[in-house]
Write a structure and sequence with these properties.
This protein is an alpha/beta fold. The chain has helices at about 10-25, 35-45, 60-70, 90-100, 120-125, 180-185, 210-220, 220-240, 270-280, 285-290, 295-300, 310-315, 330-340; strands at about 30, 55, 75, 105-110, 130-135, 140-145, 145, 155-160, 170-175, 255, 260-265, 320-325. It has 2 domains: about 10-220, Type I PLP-dependent aspartate aminotransferase-like (Major domain) (Aspartate Aminotransferase, domain 2, 3-Layer(aba) Sandwich), CATH 3.40.640.10; about 220-340, Aspartate Aminotransferase, domain 1 (Alpha-Beta Complex), CATH 3.90.1150.10. Helix content is about 40%, strand content about 15%. Helix 1 runs parallel beside helix 7, helix 2 (about 35-45) packs parallel to helix 3 (about 60-70) and helix 2 (about 35-45) crosses helix 6. The longest helix is centred in the last third of the chain and has 22 residues, at about 220-240. The chain is globular.
């Protein structure tokens, strides 16, 4: 009897990892069981003992900062840039870096928007700070001619069913160094050498079935991006053309993959009205569903890390954001089109 191996150790997983590395123009890719796990593994690679201060936007989703706490590190919430609302404010970041209080930075691109500005890149290079990218919502975007996910030492992506590239569930790390990739492979196997530190882990591997699906879906990724760009343009016409809203500023050198749509309302009242229209149309905006707001106010267990973030507070009360339906999601697409007809 011939054994068919679709476990997380099968050859097809390695084949998928090679395809990911080539797609993102990155030396090494390692798959795991979720995007959140990918960030956790990245932090365990860089800071095995924990205790380090990790800068992140207070507008990031819970899946981005939960790994900071789980890896026994300390989240440091830094205000966002009003011009690039999902990028850290370079002035606030430089203030922290000048005081040598930050050990690493996690950047997060919400709904496919620009995750960091040119000034942030220059500051991280100037101070030699480790940069981890959460590209769950910005995969296949590019900036300054480089794929998002390859600016930092490790890029962390998601293969969840809602993402541009999906395997049902899963995640991956884009590693610039071979030692990081090898360490990631060890950690996903019950923690690898971490066993010697008496710290137990679960198995964190991606499945062979998922890898097979990922290889198939990579063949159609251009079609998926084109589809979402068309929906993006339709939303732009309705929201920004008819309602007079505007979408966040972006550098001309940034190329979005149109994972989602984001726009800025004139007031919290206007934002809530759009949320109401979506709800009555049978859908819920992500900005409402996930309670877009300051992380340390939304989740009581983060209250001890509270800090002043006036820009983020302002953005959180005026932003409308939602994921654009995939090609296969015909019903969701029809609901979105119906809602747009009412605007």
């Amino acid at each position: 009897m011939v054994e068919i191996n679709f476990s997380g150790s099968s050859d097809i997983v390695q084949k998928f990892e090679g395809a990911l590395a080539r797609t993102f123009l990155c030396p090494h890719a390692v798959t795991t069981n979720s995007g959140t796990t990918a960030i956790f593994i990245a932090l365990k690679i860089l800071f095995p003992a924990g205790g380090k201060r990790i800068a992140i936007s207070p507008l990031a989703p819970a899946m981005s900062y939960i790994p900071i706490v789980l890896s026994k590190n300390i989240p440091v919430f830094i205000d966002v840039d009003l011009d690039y609302p999902f990028s850290l404010d370079p002035r606030a970041l430089e203030s922290q870096l000048s005081e040598s209080t930050i050990d690493a930075v996690i950047t997060v691109g919400m709904w496919g928007r620009q995750p960091f500005s040119r000034q942030v890149v220059e500051l991280l290079n100037k101070f030699g700070i480790l940069h981890v990218e959460d590209i769950a919502q910005s995969q296949f975007a590019s900036y300054l001619g480089k794929p998002i996910g390859t600016f930092g030492v490790i890029g962390c992506g998601s293969l969840h069913n809602n993402k541009l590239l999906q395997t049902g569930e899963g995640g991956y790390l884009l590693c610039q160094q071979l030692t990081y990739a090898e360490r990631a492979q060890e950690i996903r196997e019950f923690g690898g050498r971490i066993f010697s530190n008496n710290e137990l882990f679960l198995k964190l591997k991606h499945s062979g079935y998922g890898a097979r699906a990922g290889l198939d879906n990579l063949q159609y990724i251009k079609d998926e991006i084109t589809h979402r760009k068309l929906l993006f343009n339709l939303c732009d016409q309705k929201f920004c053309g008819n309602l007079g809203l505007h979408w966040p500023k972006e550098d001309p050198e940034f190329r979005s993959s149109s994972y989602g749509f984001t726009c800025i309302a004139a007031s919290e009242k206007d934002r809530n009205e759009i949320h109401r229209v979506f709800h009555e149309g049978g859908a819920i905006c992500d900005s409402q569903k996930y309670k877009l707001g300051l992380a340390f106010e939304t989740y009581p267990w983060l209250s001890e890390f509270s800090t002043s973030c006036p820009n983020a507070d302002r953005i959180s009360k005026s932003t409308v954001g939602f994921r654009l339906p995939a090609i296969r999601e015909a019903a969701a697409r029809e609901i979105l089109e119906t809602i747009l007809e009412r605007i």
